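Morning run. Coffee first, then this:
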Amino acid sequence: MEITAAAVKELRERTGAGFMDCKRALEQADGDMDKAIAALREKGLAAAAKKSGREAREGLVSSYIHAGGRLGVLIEVNCETDFVARTEEFQGLVRNLAMQVAGLAPTWVDVENIPADALEAKKADLLADEATASKPENVREKIIEGQLKKWYRDVCLLEQPFRDEERSVRDLVNEKIATIGENIRVRRFTRYALGEEL
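And here it is:
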């Protein structure tokens, strides 16, 4: 099947992947755009996994103040080199992450960052629910596991859906790792809302 330059361009715009990667993905997917996107995502995840062990000590501390000055976010995102930290692509990612924190108000960066006592308290709350408690024990564990995954999507930045897309924030970061070529890590963030309880 002949792959047109317009199809390659569209795939590049939708994924941010390189020209040759897009062309190869379209050839392997017989011109199917959705299959090509899935293949590039898979490739990006593999690239991200390879880079995840590399140290990321450079990056940016950035802020986002919502219009009206009633809501603000400070966020630190790390990469491997200061060269990458100065690129528009990395700075755009950091801006998007700051706006995500402002809009969806996660509490932690990732599941591993949830303190053990907060996790145990949530499990206890879920176990105390009458609807869950009335189920057989082997079913209860699966119900709690499913409810915890749903809770993680609310309280962990990397588990949240990015804007109103299907992909998660983790998928977005992994795609940027693949296109930029360096390990990227969201280190920490703080969200301030005017008048909120301390």
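DSSP finds nine helices and three strands in the chain. Good start to the day.
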